[in-house]
């Protein structure tokens, strides 16, 4: 990407604004600021992976674009595996580009709960529309393949609502490599859309540059301290002075960076996931899920609290999913063309945290499921099993280590009235948010209604960290909408007004 560079010597840079992170949040902020004519420097820990360099091999692709090869997990009982992008474009490079808005009733609930100013469905609509236009959110024409038809067939058989899913795409080729980096550039990730636009407007993008601290003095973010390191090369110091600093590193690393910079109050205390349980379905006829796009329909009968959908499926990713119980599931690789991978997702009541421990290589993430979450997981797994048998599955294997699998729809009610085995249940998520919720409820909210960190005049959060609770849908559109909103507010509110507000915050914290 033109404008993406790494300094050859230690660098001291200046700009109107510094943006930390290049995913959905950071790219949206850059779009607003560069359009207003500001000089912008963006710092991204990961490398830039052009579409032409995207590997078709699962292990190589995941190693290149996913943080820690996709094997990070939150400590809990059980641990929950989560995935984060670590490349230019962030999580938008490894997700399926599904575009959904948060439910209007939830938005109203969040507004009242956190006392968020100017935060109604109508007030957020223009920001959602801007996000959808940026990625060309649209339905995919033509046949979508058996993997999608299975969900539609299940909904029809059971009388459950099924919704077609829009994606951020332009002329999708159906390569089914969404969890890698799209090889054709058809997936409208940030590296294809807003980032090149911002670079064309003069933004400087430093890839492979990890920010380790924001220096804060007298209620202002004074300097961003980072190191730039190419593979095999020396680490070079990068220091950026900016009038405004936007932290857009994702729900986990935004909270971790703020805490590392001395900002602790209510930061990283309210992390939320979408705990997700999967099931593998074996059919009598070939599904050939690898030949079509990811399933572009979802069972939405039980939303926003529960949702049933389908996963990206390639032989490599399928093999990785079976590895959680290879002893009992490895034989399914022989029948991989007859298999599909599906999931049930819940909105949890449990809460996680992000903390720093001296000597650790990264933030420590914990998440505690509460009894209501286990009930919801049991329900959604039962409904997932019902759906797959209704669509003609011959056998269904829930993501529970040692489970022999179900061979008839009568068996799927096994866990309806009893909890899942905590030690054997394998949970994961790709949706992370809520570590820095906004609002004027000071006992809960880490930032104000417009993303400004309390007590600091020119420091803002603008990514999925701001989503007040789990939205029950893919969070990218909401992350972008809130980031647009934060950036516009930062431009509209005068520095003097922000300084007065920061001073009030500090005085109230001292009381």
Automatic annotation (TrEMBL):
<dbReference type="InterPro" id="IPR000172">
    <property type="entry name" value="GMC_OxRdtase_N"/>
</dbReference>
<comment type="similarity">
    <text>Belongs to the GMC oxidoreductase family.</text>
</comment>
<feature type="domain" description="Glucose-methanol-choline oxidoreductase N-terminal">
    <location>
        <begin position="69"/>
        <end position="275"/>
    </location>
</feature>
<keyword id="KW-0285">Flavoprotein</keyword>
<dbReference type="InterPro" id="IPR036188">
    <property type="entry name" value="FAD/NAD-bd_sf"/>
</dbReference>
<dbReference type="GO" id="GO:0050660">
    <property type="term" value="F:flavin adenine dinucleotide binding"/>
</dbReference>
<dbReference type="Pfam" id="PF00732">
    <property type="entry name" value="GMC_oxred_N"/>
</dbReference>
<keyword id="KW-0274">FAD</keyword>
<dbReference type="InterPro" id="IPR007867">
    <property type="entry name" value="GMC_OxRtase_C"/>
</dbReference>
<keyword id="KW-0560">Oxidoreductase</keyword>
<dbReference type="Pfam" id="PF05199">
    <property type="entry name" value="GMC_oxred_C"/>
</dbReference>
<protein>
    <submittedName>
        <fullName>FAD-dependent oxidoreductase</fullName>
    </submittedName>
</protein>
<dbReference type="GO" id="GO:0016614">
    <property type="term" value="F:oxidoreductase activity, acting on CH-OH group of donors"/>
</dbReference>
<feature type="domain" description="Glucose-methanol-choline oxidoreductase C-terminal">
    <location>
        <begin position="364"/>
        <end position="483"/>
    </location>
</feature>
């Amino acid at each position: 990407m033109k404008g993406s560079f790494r300094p050859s010597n230690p660098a001291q840079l200046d700009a109107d604004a510094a943006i930390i992170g290049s995913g959905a949040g950071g790219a949206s902020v850059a779009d607003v600021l560069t359009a207003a004519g500001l000089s912008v420097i963006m710092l991204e820990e990961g490398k830039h992976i052009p579409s032409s360099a995207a590997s078709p091999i699962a292990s190589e692709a995941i190693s290149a674009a996913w943080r820690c090869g996709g094997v990070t997990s939150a400590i809990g009982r059980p641990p929950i595996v989560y995935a984060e992008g670590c490349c230019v474009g962030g999580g938008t490079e490894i997700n399926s580009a599904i575009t959904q808005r948060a439910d209007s009733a939830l938005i109203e609930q969040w507004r009242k709960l956190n006392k968020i100013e100017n935060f109604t469905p109508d007030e957020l609509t223009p920001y959602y529309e801007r996000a959808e236009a940026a990625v060309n959110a649209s339905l995919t024409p033509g046949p979508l393949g058996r993997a999608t038809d299975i969900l539609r067939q299940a909904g029809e058989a059971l009388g459950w609502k099924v919704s077609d899913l829009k994606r951020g795409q332009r002329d999708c080729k159906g390569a089914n490599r969404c969890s890698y980096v799209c090889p054709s550039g058809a997936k409208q990730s940030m590296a294809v859309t807003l980032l090149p636009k911002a670079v064309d407007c003069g933004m400087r993008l430093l890839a492979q540059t990890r920010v380790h601290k924001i220096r804060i003095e007298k209620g202002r973010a004074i300097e961003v301290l980072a190191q730039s390191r190419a593979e095999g090369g020396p680490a070079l110091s990068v220091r950026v002075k900016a009038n405004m600093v936007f932290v857009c590193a994702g729900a986990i690393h935004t909270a971790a960076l703020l805490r590392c910079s001395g900002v602790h109050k209510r930061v990283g205390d309210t992390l939320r996931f979408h705990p997700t349980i999967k099931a593998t379905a074996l059919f009598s006829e070939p599904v050939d899920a690898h030949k079509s796009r990811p399933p572009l329909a979802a069972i939405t009968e039980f939303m926003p609290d529960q949702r049933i959908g389908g996963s990206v499926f390639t032989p490599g990713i399928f093999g990785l999913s079976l590895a959680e119980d290879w002893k009992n599931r490895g034989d399914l690789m022989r029948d991989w063309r007859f298999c599909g991978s599906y999931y049930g997702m819940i909105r949890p009541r449990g809460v996680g945290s992000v903390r720093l421990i001296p000597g650790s290589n990264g933030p420590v993430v914990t998440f505690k499921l509460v009894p209501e979450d286990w009930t919801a997981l049991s329900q959604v797994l039962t409904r997932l099993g019902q759906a797959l048998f209704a669509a003609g599955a011959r056998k269904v294997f829930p993501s529970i280590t040692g489970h022999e699998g179900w061979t008839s729809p009568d068996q799927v009610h096994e866990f309806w009235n009893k909890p899942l085995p905590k030690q054997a249940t394998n949970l994961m998520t790709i949706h992370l948010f809520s570590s820095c919720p906004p609002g004027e409820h000071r006992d809960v909210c880490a930032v104000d209604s417009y993303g400004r960190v309390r007590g600091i005049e020119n420091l803002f959060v603008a990514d999925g960290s701001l989503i007040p609770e789990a939205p029950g849908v893919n969070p990218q559109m909401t992350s972008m909408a809130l980031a647009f909103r934060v950036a516009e507010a930062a431009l509209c509110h005068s520095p003097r007004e922000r300084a007065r507000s920061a001073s009030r915050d500090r005085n109230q914290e001292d009381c």
